Amino acid sequence: PAARYAPAIVVGSGYGSAVAALRLGQAGVRTVVLEMGRLWDTPGPDGKVFPSTSAPDQRSMWYRTRTEAPLATFLWLDVVNRDISPYPGVLDRVNYGDMSVYVGRGVGGGSLVNGGMAPTPRRSYFSEVLPQVDADEMYGTYYPRARAMLGVNSVDPDWFESTEWYRFARVSRKHAQNTGLKTTFVPNVYDFGYMQREAAGTAPRSALAGEVIYGNNHGKKSVDKTYLAAALGTGNVTIETMQRVVAVRPDPAGGYVLTVRTSDTTGKVTQVRELGCDRLFLGAGSLGTTEILLRARETGALPALSDRVGQNWGTNGNVMTARANHLWDTVGANQATMPALGIDDWDNAANPVFAEIAPLPMGIEHWISMYLAITRNPERGHFTYDAATDSARLQWTRDQNAPSVAAAKNLFDRINLRNFTMYRYDLFGDNKAFADTFTYHPLGGCVLGEATDGYGRVKGYRGLYVTDGSLVPGSLGVNPFVTITALAERNMERILAEDPR
Ligand code: FAD
């Protein structure tokens, strides 16, 4: 047995963890949050907390010698990536053979690096994906609560129509409308009022200065500024950074014992501790939480875990593509980094696609229309435990993404045909028009009602909970963080009401 470090420990500090920490803190439970990344609040030598996308440095990526941006090339030249020195940077790309997964590292998790898009899924599709969850409660209570806490807001339609910063989106909308497709505004957690002040020159630029995947210096309501700030405000929550949880076992005296590695910024492990707690909330994300539980089951530390741990993982059908426009259809040198519009063809039963119109802010006219398509891909991956490296390995093959590519191709073939345009083949490497080897939306691995009960309580162990994107079975049809947050709100309310302290 290890000394009891705190009544509750929360692993990770993304959306799910932030909800858990706040609601535990408000309930008067002393809680420690353990995050493997750093706190992003201190300016670097350039006076900024986060580096710009055009001049990435060590802060950009998690212990890399070269950046690995999603758009690797332009006109087939490797002009995007840069050599950097290893450091606990904010964006990680976890490479598993045929599939790579982008995740955020640091206090705030994915909220530090994401595009801020905050849609709520179609209710009918939500009910199909998570039939055991009461949709009335979700859409009546928990989604509104999550959106309010996260600071979800919408672009002013008049400004959107007139600003040069969204010209790229209006051009894509015109091409979609020519094809008979409808578009919809996508809400965001970036403060659009702030963005208008950036455009007016009255506030320092962030979304209008190319900032997004390596962090936003202004305007973005990441969870360190919302949920986690409120959690710290309860006086019951503390956050410890550069703490990686590597193992968990039951304490014979009750509760759990974690093995936690502290690292310095060179990556050197400076301390290994065993920390005890009564209740443990896993919010390390789909990859992180699944790895912790899979390792615990396979090494015999938590042998009663369900065989569903590690199963039912998906990419949310992510695939990116790009089109080349005619010379007269300029997309503009100035592009806001926060997407605000999507092509909504999800009700097309034969070929459902929700394609967000993504910016490609290069500061020059390039006539490129970019998209992140979310498709309905029934394929699922699973994780196996590799004892030699003591890590989880994703089992996912390239052909499993064929349904996503086919769906996106179906939609964009129609758009190209109607507008006499073509795909761009030079942006994603390997002369590909579709980027099908990475995802921004890892979902599943410890799915609700399979590896856990209907509220995230891990099957087989009392006082052990999953609170993040690993609860969602692989697909949502829209970007996931609002749903991850709302589900965590729902589960925490039940757990705090019912489970013994
Ligand atoms: P995460 O936010 O991933 O948080 C997990 C945290 O746990 C991380 O901080 C991690 O460092 C930490 N951790 C992991 N393992 C351990 C460990 N062993 N010990 C301690 N700490 C650990 N979603 C949207 O809805 N809209 C978007 O526009 C959008 N754009 C995206 C763009 C990018 C570039 C990326 C990478 C993601 C994007 N996403 C978007 C996805 C969204 O960010 C994720 O779905 C969301 O962050 C997942 O939340 P989570 O709570 O499951 O975990």
Question: What spatial form do the alpha-carbon principal axes imply?
Answer: globular
Main sheet specs: 7 strands, mixed
The molecules bound to the chains, other than polymers, are:
flavin-adenine dinucleotide
Question: What percentage of the residues does DSSP assign to strands (E)?
Answer: 15-25%
How many domains make up the 3D coordinates?
1
How would you characterize the overall build of this protein?
Residues 104-127 form the Glucose-methanol-choline oxidoreductase N-terminal domain. Its EC number is 1.1.3.6, 5.3.3.1. Keywords: Cholesterol metabolism, FAD, Flavoprotein, Isomerase, Lipid metabolism, Oxidoreductase, Steroid metabolism, Sterol metabolism. Helices cover 24% and strands 23% of the residues. By secondary structure, the chain is an alpha+beta fold. It has one domain: FAD/NAD(P)-binding domain (3-Layer(bba) Sandwich). The two termini are 19 Å apart. Flavin-adenine dinucleotide is lined by residues 11-17, 34-37, 102-106, 109-111, 113-117, 213, 244-245, 283-286, 288, 292, 440-441, 468-469, 479-481, 484.
